[in-house]
Amino acid sequence: MIQRYAVVLAAGQGSRMKSKLYKVLHPVAGKPMVGHVIEQVEATGANEIVTIVGFGAEKVKDYLGNRTNYAVQEEQLGTGHAVIQAETHLKDKEGITLVICGDTPLLTAETLNNLFDYHQEKGAKATILTAHAQNPTGYGRIIRNKENSVEKIVEQKDASEAERLVQEVNTGTYCFDNRLLFETLSQVGNQNSQGEYYLPDVIEILKKQNEIVDAYKMISENEGKGVNDRVALAEASQLMRERINKMHMQNGVTMIDPTTTYIDSDIVIGSDTVIEASVSLKGKTIIGEDCFIGAHSEISNSIISDGVRVTNSTVKDSVMEKNSNIGPYSHLRPNSHVGEAVHIGNFVEIKNATLGLKTKVGHLTYIGDADLGENINVGCGTIFVNYDGKNKFRTTVGKNVFVGCNANLIAPLTIGENVYIAAGSTITRDIPTEAMAIARARQENKLEYYNKLPH
Ligand code: UD1
Ligand code: CA
Predict the structure, then answer these.
(1) CA-CA distances (angstroms) from residue 169 to 132, 191, 226?
(2) Are residues 243 and 322 both part of a single domain?
(3) Domains of the chain: total
(4) Is the pLDDT at 161 greater than 90, yes or no?
């Protein structure tokens, strides 16, 4: 078995992004571009991956961790110069080296494997992954001779007018004979319009040395898209979303309008779940089977179990157990655990709280820092008063409690089981099991008052 290596180029500053964030860390469908690239490279079974890092190296290393080796390119002198930095890791090894850019997030392992296979079948020393581009502006052009074999790659800025008309472009992805790659890189100069050491120049040098140089042209135009600016970032994100949505639909998820459904890369969704328009599913979210996620809902880093309904609501860092529901217009903030068959209606905010089986919170309520048992009814307008301006306190409510409307529960509090709290009460002391608490001013009726007032 021939050894496969990979070099991921990720040291460029990405100045065209005009960003404080390092280019390859910009997310596409919730995952940094370089994360997509490394994942696909890993899936080819590459024996060793070396990522070239420069400006912002620590942040890339923090993100990728030990999934790859690293080589530092102190100064960004071009893609050829970048690959040379991998010398200490790879130079004397026998095998095929894939070179790929950290800013081409759409390339799939399938295409990379096809490239490896093609390279091997042709006995080539270098094979370029190319694509037909409707608009080739910005890409290196593939220059072929009369026999249609590859001669060289010319960069946009160095290309003649005739060369600029060529629509076959370099995706920045190549397979090389590993030893020959490092031998040839030392011959690459920087006599070009950008004064950079271009990796694509290796192609022309090898060709002149009569080595077999070839190009594997993929069918998809989009997969090879390189992201250099925010316009391309948005295009790549849209293409990635289409791919993700298609995969979920093929797995049995109904999407009412996939063009406005925003699902991050690693989301899991069970079959027969229906997702309406303008829904965002982010981070490490898992959605069960037979769920309904209504229009304009946003769910991030949460677990939504089977049969849950989320109607126009926001759920963050939380869990919803089976057959519970929320919304419209409600908000689960971090660390909320909503029990089975719980009902949360409209205009309810819940934070750092647990709600037991079948508990109901129908309307206009804030529950923060609290543990509620089973079968509780929280009346409209209830506030769990958890904050005194400096510290937060917790409230515990036993099962079967009925909280009347517009109650304030001033934490810390422990409320026993089977308790009634009268509407409009401000509760400041614990309530024992089976009691009724009423804490409001008594009503007084001033009779025949109307005629005492001037009118
Ligand atoms: C490059 C190719 C071009 C190809 C295009 C495909 C060169 C000279 N040009 O152009 O033929 O069509 O990709 O998307 O290779 N990088 C470093 N160190 C450097 C310079 C760049 O690590 O000194 C990294 C960048 O972080 C990036 C990748 O190499 O991930 C490509 O660099 P970029 O500047 O984006 O090259 P393009 O102009 O897109
Ligand atoms: Ca690029």
Answers:
(1) 6, 21, 11
(2) yes
(3) 2
(4) yes
Closest CA to 366 of 353, 377, 356: 353
In a shared domain, residues 207 and 73? yes
CATH number at residue 430: 2.160.10.10
Ligand 1 atom index nearest CA of 13 = 26
186 and 245, same domain (yes or no) = no
Active site residues: 363
- Does 335 sit in the ligand 1 pocket, CB within 6 Å? no
Q: With a 6 A CB cut-off, is 171 part of the ligand 1 pocket? A: yes
Contacts of 125 (CB under 8 A, 6+ apart): 176, 177, 180, 206, 211, 212, 213
Q: Whose CA is nearest to atom 35 of ligand 1?
A: 228
CATH code of the domain in which 211 resides: 3.90.550.10
Indicate if the pLDDT at residue 1 is higher than 90.
no
- Residue 404, in any domain of the structure: yes
What is the DSSP secondary structure assignment for residue 54, as one 8-state letter? B
- CA gap 198, 194 in Å, rounded: 9
Tell me: the pLDDT tens digits for 229-271? 999 999 999 999 999 999 999 999 999 999 999 999 999 999 9
Query: What range defines the domain where residue 421 resides?
Result: 230-437
3-state secondary structure of 36: helix
Is 340 within a domain? yes
Nearest 5°: the CA angle 36, 41, 47 is 145
Q: Residue 86 CA: which ligand is closest?
A: 1
Taking the CA of 199 as reference, the closest ligand is 1
Instruction: Find where tokens 């509407």 sit.
Output: 423
Q: Is residue 448 part of a domain?
A: no
- Residue 383 domain-assigned (yes or no): yes
240 lines ligand 1 (CB under 6 A): no
Rounded to the nearest integer, the mean pLDDT of the chain is: 97
